Amino acid sequence: MDVAEALSSRRSCRGYLPTPVPADVVERVLALASHSASNSNSQPWQVHVVTGAAKRRLTEDLLKAYEAGDRGREYDYQPPAEEWPEPFHGRRQAFGHTLYAEALGIGRDEPERRLAHHRRNYDFFGAPVGMILTVSRRPRQGALVDAGLFLQALMLAANAEGLATCAQASLIDFSPVLRRNLRIPDDQLIVCGLSLGYADRDHLSTRCRTTRLPVSAFVTFHEAEDEYCGT
Ligand SMILES: Cc1cc2nc3c(=O)[nH]c(=O)nc-3n(C[C@H](O)[C@H](O)[C@H](O)COP(=O)(O)O)c2cc1C
């Protein structure tokens, strides 16, 4: 798979087969992701990988906190649903409609079914491998850029191996559980979770197809209007 295909065919997967992912494959995609660029090659990322009994224990703890409403997000990852500004609010609504109504067949008037789907985040959507990505707080906010590059590289490397992924910010709603369970020290900022495994192509969620804006919507080309060419 070339880079263009890896980029354009990657999509978030929310339904996995129970088929285990061989440890050497997991290690290979992590090694590939480690080629990501980072500020002064600081490589501030850390990854916690959970499989088998460790994943079951983590899911059990997360769901216990979920049922108890015992949330504990440690930083302002995103605005509350009602405070998203335009144009992002509209895009978020469109995504919600694509996933819930079009793919999963869940209406706006079915909050319980919506919650049941959301709850599956905490089982990594049934994927055999769960990951928690953290970055050191010490290099400051720039480390989050490096973490984003690492995350994208990880998802592309997995795609090229025939594996599916879904980045999961929903996991940071339960950061204290993640810290306790995985012994994540305070100087590590929890960035997000990631599901990794083989896609269950029969799962309804695989019908979710997101769209993208054209280049003209997000790029401003500054062309030289005279002899001055910036040299
Ligand atoms: C940092 C990050 C966090 C995300 N968190 C979640 C999440 O918690 N649950 C989920 O189902 N999808 C999550 N997603 C997936 C996005 O909804 C998805 O990337 C977006 O809708 C575009 O769709 P695509 O990945 O299929 O192209 C997350 C994606 C990113 C990059």
Automatic annotation (TrEMBL):
In this protein, which residues make up the domain named Nitroreductase? 8-198
From which domain of life does this come? Bacteria
Q: Which InterPro entries match?
A: Nitroreductase, Nitroreductase-like
- Alphabetical keyword list: Flavoprotein, FMN, Oxidoreductase
Needed co-factor(s): FMN
The answer to keyword Flavoprotein applying to this record is: yes
A single Gene Ontology MF term assigned here is:
oxidoreductase activity
Q: Tell me the protein family, please.
A: Belongs to the nitroreductase family.
> What name does this protein carry?
Nitroreductase
Query: Which organism is the protein's source?
Result: Kutzneria kofuensis
Taxonomic lineage of the native organism: Bacteria, Bacillati, Actinomycetota, Actinomycetes, Pseudonocardiales
